[in-house]
UniProtKB/TrEMBL annotation:
Pfam families, sorted: SseB
InterPro entries (UniProt xref): SseB_N (IPR009839)
Taxonomic superkingdom: Bacteria
Stated name of the protein: SseB protein N-terminal domain-containing protein
Domain SseB protein N-terminal intervals: 8-120
Length: 263
């Protein structure tokens, strides 16, 4: 297949200009957010998986692919795999001195990522936003935000399927006169707040904007402030899940509540 994936496109933007740090960050963000297929040495046993390890110039790598057919093309047929997010794979490999071979020989995004970069990605994804309380007195239109941040937010929120109905980006004035930009999620699913705040933090990080440049809040649609945000803010509609169907899991890692363990 010749269809380019989001990872292919991010890789192409990164390699087009070696000095473009923003494009490099966007590539790693796409890698973290994408579902990847990790090539295994044998079928998983329970929650334990054994990745196939490859030695390249005295360094060890596992192989991951962003489509099943690309994995099959690489091995020349069927092979055991675990379907995991890139962030989960980075978490499993962090500190083990193992790098990532991404789409090797089967896609435009073919690349070897050294172990140090895997450790960096895991550490970057592990940065948590700070919590604070402040009373909002006034909201207005968002002004002066970099296009890179708006693009990063749009891409990141597109991965937050079903976690909230929508979000509004606006300028906010707080009690005491402090001002900042605010991203308010409307009707967030209870328990999703931390994940949504983390998503915004990552959008800031991977767009090259310093952390703390954007505040996050959670409102119900019936909240009077939500109406003001709808009037003045920039709206993001989050994807909503399709009707749930009962399906069997075909590979370890498909259940985010039961992540696999490497051995």
């Amino acid at each position: 297949m010749t269809d380019l994936t989001a990872l292919d496109q991010a890789h192409a933007a990164m390699t087009a200009n070696d000095s473009d740090d923003a494009a490099r960050l966007r590539f790693y963000e796409r890698l973290a957010d994408s579902e990847m297929f990790l090539l295994l040495a044998a079928e998983a046993e329970g929650d334990q998986v054994t990745p196939e390890l490859f030695n390249v110039a005295d360094n060890q790598f596992v192989l991951i692919f962003d489509r099943e057919d690309r994995l099959a093309q690489f091995v020349g047929g069927e092979a055991p795999y675990a379907a995991l997010s890139g962030r989960m794979i980075a978490s499993l490999l962090a500190g083990q001195g193992i790098g990532l071979g991404v789409n090797l020989d089967v896609a435009p995004s073919s690349i070897l990522i050294p172990a140090e970069a895997v450790d960096w990605l895991h550490a970057t994804l592990g940065q948590s936003p700070e919590e604070a309380e402040a009373r909002i007195e006034e909201v207005g239109r968002p002004l002066g935000l970099p296009e890179a941040l708006l693009t990063a937010l749009d891409a990141k929120l597109a991965t937050a399927t079903g976690l909230a109905h929508s979000a509004y980006l606006a300028g906010a004035t707080y009690e005491g006169g402090a001002r900042n930009h605010l991203l308010a999620f409307i009707d967030a699913v209870p328990g999703s707040e931390d994940a949504l705040a983390q998503a915004v933090s990552e959008a800031l990080t991977f767009s090259g904007i310093e952390a703390g440049a954007l505040d996050v809040s959670f409102l119900r649609a019936s909240d009077p402030l939500a109406a003001k945000l709808a009037q003045w803010g920039l709206r993001f509609d989050l994807p909503q899940p399709e009707e749930v169907q009962e399906v069997g899991l075909t590979a370890p890692g498909m259940d985010p509540e039961k992540p696999p363990r490497l051995r």
